From TrEMBL:
Residues 12-69 form the HTH lysR-type domain. InterPro entries: LTTR (IPR050176), LysR_HTH_N (IPR000847), LysR_subst-bd (IPR005119), WH-like_DNA-bd_sf (IPR036388), WH_DNA-bd_sf (IPR036390). Belongs to the LysR transcriptional regulatory family. It holds the Pfam family LysR_substrate. Keywords: DNA-binding, Transcription, Transcription regulation. This is LysR family transcriptional regulator. The keyword Transcription applies. It comes from the Bacteria. GO terms for molecular function: DNA binding; DNA-binding transcription factor activity.
Length: 298
């Protein structure tokens, strides 16, 4: 192993590390080229040249694109640390600690975006006019190590150990129905006998699904939806009864809470980041802002 590392000491430069990191994150030549603002042939030639000089493969090509080898991952890790240090140096050089700037990419679910984050973001953008936001909605926890996002906001009981973060509060849930829907039901009818709206089969292990199956094992939901925001919308529009977060339906004039909040469904709301980037100026600004401004209903 000594010969390849000896070669790297003289052959590997910052541009090479940047290319390795871009391909590790992008997974394809096109993805890496887009990150580097070059064409795919330039990325291909650069990787092949470095591999030849090092004497080892850095990437294996398969159906899912380019996967870094152990050495490729190690070099990409060095590149990420250098990238973070450069960002910190730029902030120090231009005194951006006092006025954070740049793009902040946040990943979260549709439900959290509309019920928790958007209601407070205007105050953040007014306070930090040089920060631009990219809001990415998905149920998948983005790979923060590969800079698919800077910050993740997630509901979880056990945040990943490789990330750092703060707990913003507790997301609570209850059973709701629309007022007009309830007006069509016979007097005294229990909500367990009404039409239910539930998450679809793409989320079979969601806590609301488990609770409903345990409480009403014979109940088959009449309607299904792909996320909690859609489930709550169905309740508002009188399709039936459902479990929904208090943060979504709090004080909604067209719905009634039939039962709850349900303590079995309490779950933490977490703000998460990679430890290498947590203390960049724009990251710290968002962490401090959300810690002070998120107010979840009890």
């Amino acid at each position: 192993m000594q010969a390849p590392y000896a070669k790297m000491q003289s052959a590997l430069d910052l541009q090479d590390l940047e290319t390795i990191l871009a391909l590790h994150r992008g997974r394809t030549l096109a993805g890496a080229a887009e990150r580097l603002k070059v064409d795919t042939s330039t990325v291909f030639r650069a990787i092949k040249r470095v591999e030849k000089e090092v004497g080892e493969l850095l990437f294996e090509r398969g159906r899912q694109g380019y996967t870094a080898t152990e050495l490729g991952r190690e070099l990409a890790g060095h590149a990420e640390r250098i990238e973070t240090q450069l960002e910190e140096a730029r902030e120090a050089a231009f005194n951006q600690a006092a006025q954070p700037s740049g793009t902040l990419r946040i990943t979260l679910t549709d439900t959290l975006l509309h019920s928790v984050l958007l209601p407070v973001l205007a105050r953040f953008t007014a306070a930090y006019p040089q920060i631009a936001l990219e809001l990415v909605t998905t149920n998948v926890l983005a790979n923060l190590s590969q800079r698919e996002a800077d910050i993740a906001i997630r509901v979880t009981s056990s945040p990943p150990e490789h990330l750092v973060g703060i707990r913003l509060g507790t997301m609570r849930s209850a059973i709701y129905a629309g007022k007009d829907y309830l007006a069509t039901q016979p007097a005294g009818r229990h909500y367990g006998e009404m039409d239910w709206v539930a998450l679809d089969d793409s989320l079979p292990d969601h806590p609301s699904q488990r609770w409903r199956r345990a409480a009403f094992p014979k109940l088959a939901p009449r309607h299904k939806a792909g996320n909690l925001l859609a489930v709550a919308g169905a309740v508002v529009n009188n399709l039936g009864v459902a479990i929904a977060p208090l943060a979504v339906l709090r004080e909604h004039p067209q719905v009634v809470m039939l039962d709850g909040p349900l303590p079995e469904l309490d779950i933490g709301l977490w703000l998460l980041a990679h430890p290498d980037t947590r203390y960049l100026g724009r990251m710290k600004a968002m962490f401090d802002f959300l810690r002070a401004n998120i107010d979840l209903p009890a």
